[in-house]
Amino acid sequence: MRTRVAVIGGGQSCEHDVSLASAASVAAALDPTSYDVVPLTIGRDGTWRDRGLRPIGLCGAAQVLRGCDVVLPVVHGPRGEDGTLAALCELAGLPYVGSGVRPGAIAMDKWATKLVAAAVGIATTPGHLVTAATADHERWTHPVVVKPVAAGSSLGVSLVAEPGALRPALDAALALDSRVLVEDVVTAREIDVAVLRRADGTLMVPPALEIVADGLFDHELKYGGHADFRVPAPLTEVDAKALEDAAVATYEALGCSGVARVDFFLTDDGPVLNEVNTVPGMTEHSQVPRMFAAAGMSYAELLDELVRGAHR
């Protein structure tokens, strides 16, 4: 008998389109001999829609979800990745894929993630918090990166190289979130590490991926098809071990489940944590599936592992 899997995509965040692509790819790749896929979409306005994109509302969606064996949320960003959908599943008693409420909420909050990482000895990018109330007092002293605290897909992220660009960068980030991070520019290699908790409870860390970008790895470069992803990343044994250890320590400290992507800057002094994604991009060509492919695990096998490891 096939397992009935609800794949949820879309959402109300600025990552709506990215989430739709991930959800469509996941739904198409789940083995039809093992899984009966039930797609659900959350519109930009919050309206839940069924397989035929007919509006069914939250009550209708709850009826559909109750008829499924497992929920696989692929909603990036706020009101999805931040633990919101995990909470819905917890309250409804539905098995679901991925991290729970607390790790989803903490990891989505880049400032809170920094605090957790620092507590377990993981270096993070130097930076400070800015709000709408304090933005007027912010002064440019050196090049910085400005980013929303709880947004993803590099949206609202700006590299500020001169004084006149600071306020527009703050405004752009504050348009997406009420809190903003202003971080020092780290000149280093950008390395992504994926961590998967398998169905048997063991952790798997595939070969790391390096992002080679000339300047800021922004939304256009990330999704425009021109990003240079190198996997396995060319790393020394020492650097590879340091990155893996830091990624696992971060994953465990946050309490993650399923798969998470932990993004680092690799400096001369070792790994520096950038951010954590508990619902990373999941098209077949996204970073995480590429890393597992390098470890010999196909896209369909990765999805199968995730579904079998769902919270029960």
UniProtKB/TrEMBL annotation:
Lineage, opening ranks: Bacteria, Bacillati, Actinomycetota, Actinomycetes, Propionibacteriales
HAMAP family per record: Dala_Dala_lig
Cofactor(s) essential for the protein: Mn(2+); Mg(2+)
Domain annotation ATP-grasp: ranges: 114-308
Keyword Nucleotide-binding belongs to the record: yes
Listed SUPFAM superfamilies: Glutathione synthetase ATP-binding domain-like, PreATP-grasp domain
Listed Pfam families: Dala_Dala_lig_C, Dala_Dala_lig_N
Family annotation (InterPro entries): ATP-grasp (IPR011761), ATP_grasp_subdomain_1 (IPR013815), D-Ala_lig_Van_CS (IPR000291), D_ala_D_ala (IPR005905), Dala_Dala_lig_C (IPR011095), Dala_Dala_lig_N (IPR011127), PreATP-grasp_dom_sf (IPR016185)
Function summary: Cell wall formation.
Full protein name: D-alanine--D-alanine ligase
Keywords: ATP-binding, Cell shape, Cell wall biogenesis/degradation, Cytoplasm, Ligase, Magnesium, Manganese, Metal-binding, Nucleotide-binding, Peptidoglycan synthesis
NCBIfam families: D_ala_D_alaTIGR
EC number per UniProt: 6.3.2.4
Catalytic activity: 2 D-alanine + ATP = D-alanyl-D-alanine + ADP + phosphate + H(+)
Pathways involved: Cell wall biogenesis; peptidoglycan biosynthesis
Subcellular localization, as worded in the UniProt entry: Cytoplasm
Superkingdom of source: Bacteria
Entry's family note: Belongs to the D-alanine--D-alanine ligase family.
Main location group: cytoplasm
GO molecular function: D-alanine-D-alanine ligase activity
Keyword field contains Cell membrane: no
